[in-house]
Each structure stands twice: as structure tokens, then as C-alpha cells.
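C-alpha cells as discussed.
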């Protein structure tokens, strides 16, 4: 992870990118959960049946979803951010304000119509002065 920190304005400008990444994480996580559930329901005793082909297809697609989720996590790390949770998508953004380190917890949540689907929490963590 890089040692990037963001002030309030930089954090605000980062929001559209985080929204895009967050939605991708949310969608891929939902697909992965569905695939894993479908795999769990397949009968293992039917080794030579059509279920075998279905299992291979589901396993392959689940692998693709995991790989793409890993790519989005790395993309966040390149920005200096980190993924804290996949559901709801919760991202840590390191920041500074008035010479103090601060943490921004950015959360993508399911929004009702007309509501903002992004929640941002600012937390001052420690003073950077005199280091």
C-alpha cells in the first residue's frame, strides 16, 4: 500500500472513482455469493452427470469473480485506500486535515429512492505535528 493521504477536497474528488469501484465490488460479491450457494446445492454423488459440467462452469465463474475482486482491492491499494468490508462495501481513506492525520471511512450502502447511497465518516486519529 502506498503512503498517500488525502485532504477533504482530494477525498471529495476521489468519490466518483470510489463509487464506481464500490459498485463493482458490491455486484461481484453478490454474483460470487450466488455461485458459491449454487455450488453448495449440487449433488457431489453425480460425478458423471450434467451436474459435473454445471459444477465446472460454476467453479470457473466463481474463480473469475474472485480474481476480479482481487483486482479491485489492488486498485484501492494503489490509491492508498483499503477495503475493510465487502458487505456493505466499506473503504478506509487515509487523510490529513490541519496537520492532523485523520481517517475517512467511506461506505456504499443500499439507498432508498432519493437517498444518498454513500456514507462518509471522518475520524481524527492522531496529531502529525512534531513528528
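Sequence:
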Amino acid at each position: 500500500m502506498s503512503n498517500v493521504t488525502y485532504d477533504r477536497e482530494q477525498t471529495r474528488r476521489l468519490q466518483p472513482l470510489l463509487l464506481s469501484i464500490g459498485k463493482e465490488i458490491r455486484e461481484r460479491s453478490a454474483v460470487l455469493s450466488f455461485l458459491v450457494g449454487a455450488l453448495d446445492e449440487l449433488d457431489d454423488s453425480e460425478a458423471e452427470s450434467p451436474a459435473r459440467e454445471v459444477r465446472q462452469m460454476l467453479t470457473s465463474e466463481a474463480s473469475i469473480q474472485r480474481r476480479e475482486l482481487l483486482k479491485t482491492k489492488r486498485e484501492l491499494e494503489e490509491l492508498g485506500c483499503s477495503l475493510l468490508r465487502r458487505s456493505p462495501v466499506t473503504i478506509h481513506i487515509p487523510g490529513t486535515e490541519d496537520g492532523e492525520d485523520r481517517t475517512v471511512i467511506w461506505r456504499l450502502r443500499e439507498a432508498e429512492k432519493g437517498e444518498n447511497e454513500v456514507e462518509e465518516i471522518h475520524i481524527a486519529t492522531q496529531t502529525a505535528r512534531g513528528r
